[in-house]
């Protein structure tokens, strides 16, 4: 299989133009840590962004950073940390869950809309993404957005590219708004709650004026023998102290919480962010399910009624990470039925190639949405050059 690694956007555009001319299908690769997500590859060559590396703009006072798509995410985060800043949405590192090697890239954060526990407070990656440069399927270089937030009239290409998984274009440069690192971070951990009571506690806390930046529940056996319900609070130290006290009073009917800070708190949220409690066993299939928080416990119970399953909740119960045996359809029928009954959508994040080829990996689209999706693909990538079939068969 051929492999291309352009060192600048013009070279990438030339490669794509040539590939389109001979109908060569390209697999777009950043750091390679998410290569196992999606339907099995249906390509003839790889196009890597590894040669497109470097921070191109950093304005700490304006809280904005731009970098070429192949720039290691760790490099960007280290640069931000030097000035006491961070990416607001806490992107996940999939390498633990997928057993992949390589280094997560900055462009892939945008391409996959990669958002972690802080999403409930700061929004998703797409909410902080304010500018992109990309090469479309015709080999044209497109720029959309800029260095400031603006209202958009018409098709917002910045948001369209976020979460498209490289099916509409090759990102060459991305620009994000950033936020200051908070002075103090502390987490209330309530022990021993079942799923329903945990979600009720998280909902009460999220509905309060005390501003959580993380809200998760780890059932018993998911990393610890005792269930843990975690609520993260960040800000100036005096504010954090006050809010912890008020939350403890508000939630007194759910028990007496422990306050976790420092390295222990960082490790807890890193484990939640990277789905570490479900990494083992390696042969289990992993689903990422979004639903209304108050419907999460019923959804997981419905899946567990038909097959073995383990899970935990993030985003106040609205995000469910679920592991189930990969045999057969990896639980697709059970998961899709539960999601249909509860509302939401599900993505099969980890499963053998044979399963990912046989069952829908991303949430199946209605006929009208599929027509729109196919139309967008045809408009941006008329020859079907980029990541063919990765999200949906034939697209």
UniProtKB/TrEMBL annotation:
Q: Per its UniProt record, what Pfam families does this chain match?
A: FAD_binding_4 (PF01565)
Q: Which InterPro entries match?
A: FAD-bd_PCMH, FAD-bd_PCMH-like_sf, FAD-bd_PCMH_sub2, FAD-linked_Oxase-like_C, Oxid_FAD_bind_N
> Molecular function terms in GO for this entry?
catalytic activity; FAD binding
* Keywords from the UniProt entry: FAD, Flavoprotein
Q: Where in the numbering of this chain does the FAD-binding PCMH-type domain appear?
A: 1-181
Q: Which Gene3D superfamilies match?
A: 3.30.465.10
Q: Where does the source fall among the domains of life? A: Bacteria
What protein name is recorded for this chain? Glycolate oxidase FAD binding subunit
Q: Which organism is it from?
A: Methylobacterium gossipiicola
Recite the lineage of the species: Bacteria, Pseudomonadati, Pseudomonadota, Alphaproteobacteria, Hyphomicrobiales
């Amino acid at each position: 299989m051929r492999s291309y690694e352009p060192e600048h956007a013009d070279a990438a555009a030339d490669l794509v133009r040539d590939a389109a001319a001979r109908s060569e299908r390209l697999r777009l690769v950043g750091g390679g840590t998410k290569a196992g997500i999606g339907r099995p590859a249906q390509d003839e060559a790889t196009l890597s962004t590894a040669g497109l590396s470097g921070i191109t703009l950093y304005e700490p006072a304006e809280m904005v950073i731009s970098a070429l798509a192949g720039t290691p995410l760790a490099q960007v985060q280290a640069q931000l940390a030097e000035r006491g800043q961070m990416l607001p949405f806490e992107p996940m590192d999939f390498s633990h869950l997928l057993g992949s090697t390589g280094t997560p890239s900055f462009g892939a954060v945008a391409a996959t809309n990669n958002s972690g526990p802080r999403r409930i407070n700061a929004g998703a990656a797409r909410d902080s993404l304010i500018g992109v440069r990309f090469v479309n399927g015709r080999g044209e270089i497109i720029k959309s957005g800029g260095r400031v937030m603006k209202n958009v009239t018409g098709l917002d290409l910045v948001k369209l590219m976020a979460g498209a998984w490289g099916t509409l274009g090759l990102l060459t440069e991305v620009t994000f708004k950033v936020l200051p690192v908070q002075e103090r971070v502390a987490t209330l951990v309530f022990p021993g709650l079942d799923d329903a009571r945990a979600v009720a506690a998280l909902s009460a806390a999220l509905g309060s004026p005390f501003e959580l930046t993380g809200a998760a529940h780890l059932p018993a056996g998911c990393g610890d023998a005792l269930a843990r319900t975690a609520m993260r609070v960040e800000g100036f130290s005096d504010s954090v102290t006050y809010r912890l006290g008020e939350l403890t009073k508000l939630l007194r009917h759910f028990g007496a919480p422990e306050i976790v800070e420092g390295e222990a708190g960082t490790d807890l949220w890193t484990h939640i962010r990277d789905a570490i409690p479900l990494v083992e066993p390696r042969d289990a299939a992993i689903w990422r399910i979004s639903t209304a928080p108050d419907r999460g416990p019923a959804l997981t119970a419905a899946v567990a009624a038909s097959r073995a399953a383990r899970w935990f909740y993030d985003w106040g119960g609205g995000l469910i990470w679920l592991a189930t045996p990969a045999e057969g359809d990896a639980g697709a029928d059970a998961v899709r039925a539960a999601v249909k009954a509860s509302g939401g959508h599900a993505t099969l994040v980890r499963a053998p190639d044979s399963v990912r080829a046989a069952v829908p990996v991303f949430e199946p689209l209605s006929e009208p949405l599929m027509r729109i999706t196919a139309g967008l693909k045809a408009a941006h990538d008329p020859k079907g050059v980029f990541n063919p079939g990765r999200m949906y068969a034939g697209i």
